[in-house]
Design brief:
The structure is a single chain. The chain contains 22 helices and 16 strands. By secondary structure, the chain is an alpha/beta fold. Strand 15 (425-428) and strand 16 (434-437) form a beta hairpin. Helix 4 runs parallel beside helix 5 and helix 19 packs across helix 21. The chain has two domains: 6-287, NAD(P)-binding Rossmann-like Domain (Rossmann fold); 290-512, N-(1-d-carboxylethyl)-l-norvaline Dehydrogenase, domain 2 (Orthogonal Bundle). It has helices at residues 6-14, 42-57, 76-81, 118-125, 158-178, 191-205, 210-219, 239-246, 269-273, 290-313, 319-324, 328-340, 348-362, 371-374, 378-385, 387-397, 402-414, 441-451, 460-471, 479-482, 485-501, 503-511; strands spanning 33-38, 64-69, 86-94, 97-105, 108-113, 132-135, 181-184, 221-222, 224-228, 231-233, 254-257, 261-265, 283-286, 419-420, 425-428, 434-437. Residues 288-424 form the Mannitol dehydrogenase C-terminal domain. InterPro entries: 6-PGluconate_DH-like_C_sf, 6PGD_dom2, Mannitol_DH_C, Mannitol_DH_N, NAD(P)-bd_dom_sf. Residues 34-271 form the Mannitol dehydrogenase N-terminal domain.
């Protein structure tokens, strides 16, 4: 069976397989590049690149994407091997009925590697047709590194790469044609503002001209954005069946839910340059992203992060299992409606309706969303998605949010490192099964050090010591918790219960209390 590439599109359009597929219009395959995308992972392809294809098919945006692989490892070679073409399968319940859309996306022109092809990246960045830069470098990605050097090939951090390419555009294209619109998709508060602040700091660090710095500050646009779509990635467990059904091999195939939402805060001209909303897509341009972000991050993302480590320790593997579990599912529902919804500003009936919609999305029978995948970079996720709800609930009510406090204990129990081979770090589920813990190496080394205590009995005093040390790490941003001894007491008690009684019984005791 042949691999999916551009030559396959004609064959598919003439074959019986095309009845399963939404093929890109032929005239969309040779459009000019208008978007530079830092990140080639599953999310950006199933979200940004798929939405751009849908807009192109309606003759709305009329532009393609050049993808930059920002780290040494990634999918650039696989993307280029398929001429940038890949399959996106979106599944869900629509108007009470199951629905599946299988779309071949042809919006990616090509992929370049920042490491090994940086000079080519800079040349592409000089293209005046490119007006927009999107990115998804994880929550930890929009940060300056002490290793950043302007002349490195490439500079180390994502903001340093942005600074360098802006400088090259400025010198080549001038003030008017060189300016860019940045729409970062990282799930951090005010992501556009954070990126701009990092770039301005680097401009000063690199001792660049004041005229250039003023141009970045005043002429380039850094939008804050919010993205919402559950993307499960490559469907390893059903790929053989899908390949037979589709009639081709696609190593870049990606699966997501049907639902999508992109909220972009910025000047009114942004929607004129990037008019995806005109294609009937759920893309909202607004002057204030705050209410959209708080609702989504605390309820949807916070619901995930609060529950997945507990559910995974308990032996569950997928989000649908988690929501439908009689104990874990009840915990999640109570956590959202009793402890998170009260912290979200706005109309409570609308917020509660959104929370109910989230639970229904979590039950999507067509999406196998791996709990272990969601645990990636849980430290930064906990700081952004969970701890603010916890602190606000206590501030608003004066009561302890016991379910949210249990979620912090669940995070710490998940990061109980039992083995490392020098490169990877591992923990153990309640049933003794080993799992990888994926986070910044500095975080993992830190967690290993606090769990490698002389007293391995993990009594209540030992658990409190672990809690206090762990929450003191600056990346958790848990100062508000440390100031409330009752919170530390509860988290320590819950951690002790998780270690001694297991996740299911610990959760049961909290929801029954």
């Amino acid at each position: 069976m042949k691999n999916l590439n551009r030559n396959m599109l004609y064959i598919l359009s003439e074959s019986g397989y095309s009845k399963y597929l939404l093929l890109p219009k032929t005239n969309t395959l040779d459009l000019p590049i208008k978007v530079m995308q830092f990140g080639e992972g599953n999310f950006l392809r199933a979200f940004v690149d798929s939405l751009i294809q849908m807009a192109n098919d309606k003759d709305i945006f009329k532009g393609k994407v050049i993808v930059i692989q920002p780290i040494p490892e990634g999918r650039a070679d696989a993307i280029n091997a398929s001429d940038g073409i890949f399959t996106h399968i979106a599944r869900g319940i629509h108007q009470g009925q199951p629905k599946e859309e299988i779309r071949i996306v042809g919006s990616i022109d090509k992929a370049l590697k920042a490491y090994g092809q940086w000079d080519e990246v800079l040349e592409e960045a000089k293209d005046p047709n490119i007006k927009i830069v999107v990115s998804n470098t994880t929550e930890a990605g929009i940060a300056i590194s002490p290793d950043d050097r302007f002349d490195d090939n490439p500079p180390h951090s994502f903001p340093a790469k942005v600074t360098r390419l802006l400088y090259e555009r400025y010198k080549t294209l001038g003030k008017d044609d060189g300016k860019l619109i940045f729409i970062p998709c990282e799930l951090i508060d005010r992501n556009g503002d954070v990126l701009k602040e990092c770039v301005i700091k680097l401009c000063h660090k690199f001792d660049l001209e004041k005229e250039f710095i003023d141009w970045v500050d005043k002429e380039c646009t850094f939008c804050c954005s919010l993205v919402d779509r559950i993307v499960t990635g490559y469907p390893q467990d059903e790929i053989e069946e899908l390949t037979k059904r589709l009639g081709y091999v696609d190593n870049n195939l990606v699966v997501s839910e049907l639902f999508h939402l992109w909220v972009i805060e910025g000047p009114s001209f942004v929607k004129d340059i990037f008019p995806l909303h005109e294609a009937g897509l759920n893309v909202i341009f607004t002057e204030d992203i705050t209410p959209y972000r708080t609702r989504k991050v605390r309820i949807l993302n916070g619901g995930h992060t609060s529950t997945v480590t507990l559910a995974y320790a308990a032996g569950l593997n997928y989000v649908k299992e988690m929501v439908e579990h009689p104990i874990i599912g009840a915990y999640l529902k109570d956590l959202l409606f009793e402890e998170v919804v009260p912290t979200v500003p706005g109309n409570k009936s609308e917020i509660s309706a959104f929370a109910q919609e989230v639970l229904e999305r979590f039950k999507n029978p067509y999406i196998k969303h791996s709990l272990l995948d969601i645990t990636l970079n849980s430290t930064s996720k906990l700081a952004v998605r969970v701890i603010p709800s916890l602190v606000d609930f206590y501030s608003i009510t004066g009561k302890l949010p016991n379910r949210l406090l249990l979620s912090v204990a669940g995070y710490l129990r998940f990061y109980k490192i039992t083995r490392t081979d020098g490169k990877y770090f591992y923990g153990t589920r309640d049933n003794g099964e080993e799992y990888p813990i994926r986070d910044d190496k500095e975080i993992l080394e830190f967690m290993k050090s606090i769990w490698d205590a002389p007293d391995a009995s993990f009594g209540i005093r030992q658990c409190r010591s672990i809690v206090e040390k762990a929450l003191s790490h600056p990346k958790l941003e848990a100062e508000g918790l440390l100031k409330v001894p009752e919170m530390i007491d509860k988290i320590s008690l819950y951690l002790h219960d998780l270690l001694n009684n297991g996740a299911v019984e610990s959760v049961r005791s909290v929801i029954n209390s």
